Amino acid sequence: MEGKKKILLVEDDPLMVRLYGRALTLNGFEVEFAATGLEAIEKLSGGTRPAVILLDLMMPEMNGLDALKKMKQMPEVKDIPVIVLTNLSMGDGSEKQAIEMGATLFLIKSQHAPKEIIERIKEMAI
Description:
By secondary structure, the chain is α/β, with parallel strands linked by helices. It has one domain: Response regulator (Rossmann fold). 39% of the residues lie in helices and 18% in strands. It is built from five helices and five strands; from the N terminus they run E-H-E-H-E-H-E-H-E-H. Helix 2 runs parallel beside helix 3.
């Protein structure tokens, strides 16, 4: 596949969408957005094939863990790396649960600068 690598950013916070959307675009990625887990599943079911999925956990309609579970049940999508990018603290068990469900990485937004997250994405979007 030639051209820019596509990233699916699943995030309901408009500030985070602008921040990560801009950072990814400036680093040469094509960005597709979904505001809910349900919208992400619909896009993936409709043929969207990103190199990496950035997935928030706390969202309306369908949370990130439910979306991750559905993604990993989709044969055409299950091998796409998923980075969970959330504000949730690591003490609530969501990190362990997300990794067990197939997430590649679990990152706390406040503990990782966008530049660092972009570098992680670049490593996976080969």
